[in-house]
Amino acid sequence: MNAGAYREPVLIEKNGYTVDEIGNQVASWAEYFRGYAYMNNLSGSEYWEAAQTQSQNTVMFIFRYHPLIAKMNTREYRLVHRGEAYNITSIDNVQFKNETIKIRAVRKE
Q: Pfam families under this entry (predicted)?
């Protein structure tokens, strides 16, 4: 894939806790990684698999490999693109070559 394909700005946020003014812990999102991705809607068998689980708002984000992205999990992180938040459903280091990482995510309703 050529370098010009990675043109969509994407923010990755990590879930954490902050302390409010009276000392209570409050869940919050903090910036973890900011980069560019190639985005693609699901097609073929991936689309029909998502349709069976009512996940038609699923989008594939493809990033160049970065160690911070490789350390992520699906529970503590989310993607933000153009003001829309996406829950991560899977993270795939393609063929373990450390060249590209595919992240499948579902837009929050």
A: Phage_HCP (PF05521)
